[in-house]
Amino acid sequence: MFLRTFGGSLVVAVVGLTAGFLYGGSTGLALAAILAVLEVSLSFDNAVVNATVLVRMSPFWQRIFLTVGVAIAVFGMRLVFPLLIVGITAKLSPVEAIRLALDKGDPNKPGTYGYLLHQAHPAIAAFGGLFLLMLFLDFMFEEREITWLGWIERPLARIGKLDQLSVVIALAALAVSAYTLAPAHKISTVLVSGVLGIATYLLVNGLGEFFDEASDDDDADEVEAELVNKKKTMHVVGKAAFFLFLYLEVLDASFSFDGVVGAFAITSDPIIIAIGLGIGAMFIRSLTVYLVRKGTLAEYVYLEHGALWAIGALAVLLLVTIEYDVPEVVTGLIGVAFIGAALASSIVRNRRNEPSDAAEPAPAPAAV
Questions:
Q1: Which of 101, 218, 248, 302 has the fewest CB atoms within 10 Å distance of its CB?
Q2: DSSP state, residue 324
Q3: Confidence of residue 15 (pLDDT cuts 50, 70, 90)
Q4: Is residue 314 exposed (0-12), middle (13-18) or buried (19+ Cβ within 10 Å)?
């Protein structure tokens, strides 16, 4: 299973590192490798969170996630998205944005590609932060049989019965962030970006649920409806699966925002950044599929909780980065800490629930 799941990632790594060497020599090879390792080590929480969504998708859509999804993640988020952001914020044509990127200017120098991308960070952080915050709040406000941090999760589930509470809290967090963290000339930009982040979450998540419910209703009168519904509790199909895939891509993108911007602390070359982060993104996606196929989430029931708490922490940190610089290693370690604690709690729970060996019956007394 390991080679079947990670074989594509190993091939991409070899091709990517070779391309990095051909493009930038030994320096390009080293920088691409460093970026790939950082992306993998600091994005483990991303894999766990993605697995909680991917587990509902059929093997076909899991393959789409590893093929088409990787193209979106590598070329879309790691290469095209930064160019698009720089082009929009600096009002440049696509050709001018590409030329500016290939100039490899100093990120601390006004007018360079890295500097312009850094200037756009408040809008990026507001969009990603509010999208992830909505995901975290919806999870916490939902009632569930199993809780990890029950002392806080159970009260949150009770107050979550208030309709649209997650939207109200997210909007309040956006207003506070915009007026306390954003520079005066960026307040409106942060507000608009945050609202778009909330709207994107509501739209993609809502469409996925709508088509999932519609698909269930269409099959309700079938002779084997019960079996179909049991299957769909794990694997959604049709339009519901498509919108779940879109939701997963936006979720993955939200995790990627800080990594793309933070990569400029290592190199300002957009080609090396795309190669290094692309290799890392491929391994994270393979790890996501591996977790699903191994049934890790079902075996360690608190992992999903830990991943969602990591999302909540990342959402807050993204909003903080509107004003303050937070090293990417901090966000990565916080995510690992939550997931590690959840994994340890799951192991303790599994051991506690293991059926104890029944006592062997005492031998019958010998006949006199």
A1: 218
A2: S
A3: very high
A4: buried
